[in-house]
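Below is a filled-in request sheet from our internal design queue. Each sheet records the structural input a requester submitted and the sequence that came back. We keep these sheets so that new team members can see what a complete request looks like end to end.

REQUESTER: design group, bay 2
PRIORITY: normal
MODE: inverse folding
CHAIN LENGTH: 266
BACKBONE (tokenized):
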């Protein structure tokens, strides 16, 4: 596309964005919030794809009839929510949509992505037998120093790294496990089909964290961007702890849901 054609397209885009919100009204609510709502409406309309470029701040200010300060404050809110990203020298772009995950469901990553219609890939980063440290042994109900399988995988959704998964399992329960390529084989399915062990429930904690340099590199993000740290202990139908999984999730790509209910009055 020529520079002239690109400029015309950008101007048309700016006009289209401004029509979403209509004229700004003094005193109704803060002007930046009116701009924010207008831009948010356009982002949620489904008309835009990840990577689409937004008009410049100057173009948006002209379209909305407000100051650059107002536009920047509205854009800051959208950046904070992860709806858009800014790249110095290039512009502001629509972020990839977040992947919604359920905290109250114990499913394999492969099945979960398939149900959402997302392409998925698993990259096996490593597998070994090591000694269980105290915290891992406590979660798995084994003695400290007992042999455990340590399997690390990078999970990719729609061609973008989503999470790093580090799984620990008691080695005595699953002989020969490291001979399996868990880059292409579902761990949960294999445990059930080969050993008759079905994971039916789990206990999971979620907390914000900052990634290590290696984790940031694998997730293709900056170290200053937060991640979600999940710790899951999964149990078999007879109540035995089978799996301890430490997962580092790219915070800008995932959103977790948990259904809650009001307790009955006693």
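RETURNED SEQUENCE:
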């Amino acid at each position: 596309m020529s520079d002239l054609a690109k400029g015309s397209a950008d101007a048309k885009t700016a006009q289209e964005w401004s029509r979403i919100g209509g004229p700004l009204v003094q005193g109704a609510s803060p002007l930046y919030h009116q701009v924010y709502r207008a831009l948010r409406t356009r982002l949620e309309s489904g008309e835009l794809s990840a990577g689409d470029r937004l008009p410049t701040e100057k173009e948006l200010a002209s379209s909305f009839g407000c100051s650059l300060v107002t536009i920047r404050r509205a854009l800051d809110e959208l950046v904070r929510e992860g709806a858009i990203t800014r790249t110095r020298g290039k512009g502001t772009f629509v972020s990839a949509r977040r992947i919604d995950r359920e905290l109250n469901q114990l499913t394999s990553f492969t099945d979960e992505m398939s149900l959402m219609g997302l392409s998925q890939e698993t990259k096996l980063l490593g597998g070994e037998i090591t000694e269980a440290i105290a915290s891992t042994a406590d979660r798995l109900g084994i003695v400290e120093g007992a042999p455990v399988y340590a399997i690390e995988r990078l999970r990719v959704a729609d061609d973008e790294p989503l999470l790093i998964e580090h799984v620990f399992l008691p080695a005595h329960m699953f002989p020969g496990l490291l001979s399996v390529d868990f880059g292409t084989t579902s761990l949960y399915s294999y445990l059930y089909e080969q050993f008759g062990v079905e994971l039916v429930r789990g206990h999971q904690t979620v907390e914000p964290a900052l990634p290590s340099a290696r984790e940031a590199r694998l997730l293709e993000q900056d170290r200053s961007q937060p991640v979600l740290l999940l710790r899951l202990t999964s149990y078999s139908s007879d109540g035995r702890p089978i799996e301890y999984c430490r997962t580092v999730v790219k915070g800008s790509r995932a959103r977790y849901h948990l259904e809650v209910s009001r307790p009955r009055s006693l």
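SHEET NOTES:
- Helices lie at 3-21, 31-44, 57-64, 68-81, 109-115, 134-140, 187-195, 213-219.
- The domain at 99-257 is CATH 3.40.1410.10 (Chorismate lyase).
FILED BY: M.R.
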